[in-house]
Structure formats: structure tokens, C-alpha cells
Hints:
By secondary structure, chain A is an alpha+beta fold. Helices cover 18% and strands 44% of the residues of chain A. Chain A has three domains: 2-113, DNA Polymerase III, Chain A, domain 2 (Roll), CATH 3.10.150.10; 125-238, DNA Polymerase III, Chain A, domain 2; 257-369, DNA Polymerase III, subunit A, domain 2 (DNA Polymerase III, Chain A, domain 2, Roll). Chain A is elongated, with a radius of gyration of 25 Å. Chain B has helices spanning 12-20, 45-48, 58-64, 75-90, 114-117, 126-151, 163-173, 186-190, 203-211, 217-232, 234-244, 274-294, 327-339, 365-373, 381-384, 393-397, 400-424; strands spanning 4-9, 29-32, 40-43, 69-71, 96-100, 103-107, 155-160, 177-181, 260-271, 298-308, 313-324, 347-358, 360-362, 433-436, 440-448, 451-456, 465-470, 476-478, 502-506. Chain B contains 17 helices and 19 strands.
Amino acid sequence: MKFRVERDVLAEAVAWAARSLPARPPAPVLAGLLLKASAGTLSLSGFDYEVSARVEVEADVEDEGTVLVSGRLLADISRSLPNRPVELSTDGVRVNVVCGSSRFTLHTLPVDEYPALPAMPEASGSVPGDVFAAAVAQVAIAAGRDDTLPVLTGVRIEIEGDTVTLAATDRYRFAVREFLWKPEVSDMSAVALVPAKTLLDTAKSLTSGDTVSLALAGSGGGEGLIGFEGAGRRTTTRLLEGDLPKYRTLFPTEFSAVAVIETAPFVEAVKRVALVAERNTPVRLTFEQDVLTLEAGSSDDAQATERLDARLEGDDISIAFNPTFLLDGLSAIDSPVAQLSFTTHTKPALLSGRPAIDAEANEAYRYLIMPVRLSG
Amino acid sequence: MPTILHLDMDAFYASVEQAAKPSLRGKAVIVGGLGPRGVVATASYEARRSGVHSAMAMGMARRLCPNAAFLVPRFPVYRQVSEVVMAVLRSVSPLVEPLSLDEAFVDLEAGPHGALLDLQGQEPTALATARVTAMVLALAEDLRADIGRATGLTASVGVASSKMLAKIASEQAKPDGLLLVEPGREHQVLDPLPVRALPGVGPATAEHLRRAGIATVAEAAAAGKAELVRLLGKAQGAAVASMAAGRDDRPVVADRETKSVSVEDTFEVDLADRTRVLREIDRLAESCVRRLRAAGKSGRTVVVKVRRFDFSTLTRSETLRAPTDDPAVVLEIARRLMDAVDTTGGVRLLGVGVTGLADFTQEDLFAHVVEAKGDAERPGGPVAGAPGPEGQGAVAGAPPGEERDAAGAAGESSLAREPAAAEAQRRWLPGQDVRHVEFGPGWVQGSGVGRVTVRFETPWSPPGRVRTFLVDDPALEQGPPLPLTGPDGPDPEPHGGGPGPRSGAVSGT
Lengths: 376, 509
């Protein structure tokens, strides 16, 4: 095998494909990156039994062939090479990397021991890369990080015709985002639970292309997998087993009060009063006649209060939240104005964004947050 | 000025039993675990004369004092009496620091008599000191009398200028005594004592000091701080040095903040059956949350403790992102933690605790749905998380329906076992309260070979008679514990263990 490729192209492709390589590989070959050169293209693939990544780039291929080398080492090397064309060639069980006056000789790993990468499921539809990445980021923030409840570490992707609904929860808050996409089949219906961390990484790394296509395996081949493809990059991820608890009934539909607050000053105020809220002790919000009072801390320790303008329709209410959960939601709505809807101080509150004070709330993203109950 | 008071009830559990059981008054009584692994919790003064002391193995106690009454502890009664004692203490000062059910520090200066005890800037003349000392003695004597009236039990009291000396004084005053360490006489009390008398000096430290030729407090004080720091390290050396010099500035702290709430049980026979182990975990988790809630707290970290047949002890914990006081959440975590513990050889002790306490609870979206539905069915198996009998695989993966079925099955099987277990467990433990349809209230004196012996008497009756029944006699049932002070209110005559009252002060010669 022998090929030449631009340094930047190689470095970017290796970095992306090596992303999913395990730090402590269960089998030595899984530390490898599989390089395949054929007819003007170089493909690089990595796999850790959970996530597979495959990227194709243009290359000047002299001799076709396949080789397996340490992914971490190749990533470190290609990142540090001078900006000159890179030539890669095999020499028995070794690989030579030559770039300008630099020359590296690497050991190869046995290709025949490398597991077959899972087949990419058939594409189900596509969505603009930036829309997808933004939607995933809004939802993944609410996913659990605790491996003891694996189901809650996932983002649920539900496809119903031309609508995709993403949902995640860590049992204290529940984020749901809907967006439209172009399905391959108009009456498509599917559900998948994808590890939130992997989904977030994947969605971010696929924004360079115009669109991302999602490939959700039905009951046929490739079951238990979801694939993403965009800009020459393909990745598959094993799905989590199980499903999130049914959530439609969790979201209240009738409210006793709706508060509208400008997001930026609200975020600033929460951050300030939360300085005295050690270890995520709650921040209390009291809405009375168009004034929002924020309080944190206790009389035993430091205390903080702040007042803000807020528009309240309905009954006055006093409610407490974990400041981190509240700030997560306020950043996720990504809107100049926040709308908080309440039923009672012990029931979950619904947060959504408004493009302006007098505009309707954007219902595409909803963030349900459970309050904190003060003892005694 | 001597304004710190330490009160210690005399042979508390044993004295309560003697007060409750007239036939035992003046006799040796030993309270503790009666199983093969039991230890003595409290021995009455009569039993102490035979060499029995607390923390001794019960087998040893039986050999030393074979004729004593061996009784199981009745904690609910001790707690009731303790509350009465603490209430009496709080009447003289709000600053009461309970150390256990039968022991507390009181800072008299913080109470209504505080102003009188303060010299108000005057020079501590001999006259002023004598006046304060006399007043404190009178106050302490009243306190002992009040406790006697309210509980029928005796207490020993030490009063001094520091916690350390007050506790040493009450120890020296025992039983049924009062000792006040006058200002300026502290060293006279402290110096001859072994170093073990100092707070924070246990057997290991004492041995270490003994090898360096330091056996008494006076010798420790003479050795000086530098030497003690060299022997014991910086923190402990410095602490021992200042204690030995009679300096102890620790304040009396009321409502010591709770750091954790936990419940544990040692089993008479090692538990090998996994279902039984999990059932005990459920029971412990529930009781732990009950205590947590009673304290008005919530917590973030759930801990399970397991001591296995070979005494290997391990703890496993899991920390939530936010505090909870939800029994379902604690139970779920405790079970999950147990899944990772191998108990095949049998366990002798199980415990469930909650730490990382807070006074607020982050509500759980799914627990909330349960309440709304008024139904034990939690949506989404994973969150309900009751592992099926086959293990933890079900927790993560199974769809909600299956999950519930597995949990339901586990519940049923344990229910099915319950009646049989209850039948076998109708055991009559010595000391236990019973009631007979015909003979009224009494207590179990002993049982064996299918019979149970009951003595029918009450705290306010003369010593009663003994009768024997079959263990399954339907006329006999467990009874409620009776109040010590009788149906008509407080008993005027204290009847505690030990010789007659004595009181005194270490005074100058």
C-alpha cells in the first residue's frame, strides 16, 4: 500500500476517526485505526464495539491496500507534522510515514484480527447539520450522567413522519425538542435511545456538512444501531436498551401562573444569588405583582437576594429550584425571553423560550423542571 | 467558675428494668444481647460486684454472675425515660448536649440562673466563689431530685469549669452522687488519674504513653507539649497536652448537627438466603428513611454496610445528584448496591444509611407521577428499578411491563413466606412485655421446651407471682411497655441501684 495525502486532510480525518477509539481497548487490535487505500480514496475507520466511525478522503493512491496502525500514535503524529504532503507506505509489517524531512516508522497490527465494522443501516431521512446539532445540545443537557441507571443516560429519538422528537431526563428535569426533517418514507415511525454523550459528540462533529442523514435500523438487519452520515463521515452507535418513562402526561397542560422574564438579566441574577448556594442548595423564586425576587442561602450562612422585573399572569407563587438545573434550562432555551409556567410550588414548572416579550412561546423546545421542597 | 454540668444516669438500662420489674429490685440485672454473639449493654450495680461490666461478652457475664436476670433491651422505654430526663435538664438551661440516652452536658450559665452564677466583673474573691459554688451545688442537688421524682431513677452529676472535668467528676460521684470541682482544685482531681481518663486517649494511646513512662495525667502534664507532640503527633499531642494541663475550652453544643442517619442490625444466625437478605435491606431502608424524615432531613448519599460470615465488612455507596427523602428512591439504591455484594457465605450484619444531609429535597419527576396516580405503579421500569429475583439485568434493560412483573413476583414470594416465618418467630424474649387475658400485664422471665414463664407485676405493684404457659397459649400476647411512674403520676421515692445518696465537693484542706 502506498498513497499521498494533504497533511490537513489527513490530520482532520485521523482525529475524527480516532475519536471513538477506547483509552483502554478490550482487545489490542481495537486500539488500531484501519486505513484502506483504493482508487483515489483513503478510508479510515475506528471501532470500540459501541461506536464505529468511518471517514473517506481524497488521496493520491499508488498501491491499493489495507493496514491497521495505532490510532492514538497516528493521530499524535499527523497533528504534529509540518504542512506538506504526507506519504504513507507499507514495508513488510511496518508502515513508513514521510512528510518533508520527517520520517516515522510504525508497527502494524494484524488486519485479519480486526472485527468487521457494523453495516451502516439504510438512511431514514436527513436534516440540516446545524439544526440537528443545536437540537441535540438542547436535549442532552437534561440527560443523566450516572451509569447506574443506563436508560437515563440516553437521548430518545422518536420519528413520526416528518417530525423528529428528541427527549432526555435525569429524573429531575425533562427536555423535549421537536424539529422537522426529510424522511425517506413519509409514514415512517421509529424510536431509538442513543447514549447522550456519543450523540452530542457526533452531532457536533457532523456540522461541517450541509445535511446529516440519520439511519435507524428497523427490525431487519443492523438492529440495535443508529447511523449518522454527513460530509464523508459515517458513524454508527449501539443503542441503549429500554426506553424512557412515558413523559407526555408529565408535562402539565393547565397552569395557575405564567411568568415572562428577560433571559439575560435572569441568568445573571441567578448566577449571582447562587454564589451563596453552596453545593446546589436551592434558589427561591418569588413572583409577586410583576416583581421577581430571587433568594439563596440560609440565615446560618451567607444570604443573597435580588429583584428583577417580570411579567406575571395568574396567581403569585414562590418556588425553589436547584440553580444548576435552572441555569441549564435558561441556556438551553436559547431565546431572549424566558417563559416559566407553574401549577403549584410542589409540581414541575415548564420553561420555554419566547423570541420577544409579547411573542408567543416557542413550543418546539420545552424544559420541565422539578422544584426543590424545603424541609420543615 | 464551675458551671458545666455532666449528668449520667446510674446503670441506666438496668435501673429502668429494676424500676419496671419490682421483683428485680436489689438483684443483679444484666441487659444486653442474649444470643451467642450478644454483649452486655448495662449491668446493675449488684451485677457489677461480680465483675460484670458493659461491652463484656454475654457468655462471660453468664459465667461470672449466673444468678442475674438476663434481659433484652427495651429501647422504646429507655427513649421515653431519656426524653423525660432531657426535659428536666432543659428546664435549667437551654444549652443541653445529649451524648447518649443516659448522658448529657449542661451549660448552667446559659440558663435562667446564669446571671446569678456570673461574678459580673467582680474579683473572684473567696467569698464570691463560695457563694457561686454553693448555688451550683444546690442547683445540681435539685436537678437530681427532680430527675428522681420524674423518673424514679438515680443520676450522678459532676460540675466543673470544663466538660472534661465535669465528666470525670460525675464518674467519681457514681453511683447516685454529686461532685463539684471547686475552682483552683482542678489539678487535685485530675493529676492522679490515669491518662485514659482524658478525652481522646484510648487503649492504644495509653499504651504508647505508658512505654514512654507516662501513666498519669500529672506525668503527661509534666512531660509537656513538645514531648507529647513527638510521641503522639501534632494534633493529638497538642490536644492531650492541653487537656492534661486542665485546659478544655470545648463549648456545650445543643442540637449537635446530624451528619448521617443509619440503621443496622446484627442477626442471630448468619443470613444466607438472598431473598431474605434483600427483604432485610428493604426493612432497614424504610426504617432509615423514617428516621431521616423524623429529623426533618434529606440526603444525597445512600450507604449499605455488610458484614459477612468471616467478619469482612464492606460498605457500598451511591451519591445522587440531589438530596432526597423519598423511601422509594433510597430503597431502589440500597437494593442496587446490594446487587454488587456477594453474600453467598452468609451475612451477620446489614445496615442502610443516608449521608450528605440537607434540609431540602429535590423532587423526582417520576415519584411525583406516582403520587398523582395514587398508585404504586411507577412509570418506566428503570426508575422504579426494583430488581427482579434474577438480578440487576432487569433494572437497566427490561421494558416497563416486564420490570413490574418481576418486582411483583418478588413481592409475592416474600409475602407468601411471611406467615410461616412469623409463626416460627413467636419467641418470648426475657424481659419482654406481655399481657395475659386473665392475669394482666407482666414480663417474660424465661422460655424453653415449649413453655414460657411470665411474672405478673407492674412498675407500681409489689413483686408479683410467676406462672408458666405453653408458648402458643392464645391467652398470652405481647403487651405495651408500661410507664415507670405508675398510673397515678410520678413516683415520689426514687429506687435506683446502688447504695444510698451521697454528695460532696472536693474542697480545700
